[in-house]
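Now for one record.
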Amino acid sequence: MKTSRGAASEVGIVEVWHEALNSGDIERLVMLSHPDVLVGGPHGTRRGTKPLQEWADRANIRLELLRVFHWGDKVVVQQGAEWRSAETGQVLGSQIVASIFAVHDEKVTSVVRYDDLTKALQEANLDESHEVRAE
């Protein structure tokens, strides 16, 4: 799969995963994720598409891709996160975060959020040289 960033299919899967999350297409988000997907962040980790669905419904979050790093099955994404009120749509908060995605057989097998890009890159054993640049 050729992506807008010109990288391998892992990056394309992560881009489409973000599109599904941001549009509220939970069914598509689940289809892009492995049935035993690991979902992690500041509140711990859980496995399976049910916790993924619960998180997507509860968090009411939009994630903008800012920078993307890729090597093998790992994709690290720096994201602009914005949380909104489900009732009013009003922005409740925003933050720059980073997530490590693992992709196997065109499915997201894990997504773990970190508070900053430096920590995520260290955890994924990636560095600035792995950045995927937009064409």
Notes: The radius of gyration is 14 Å. The longest helix spans residues 9-23.
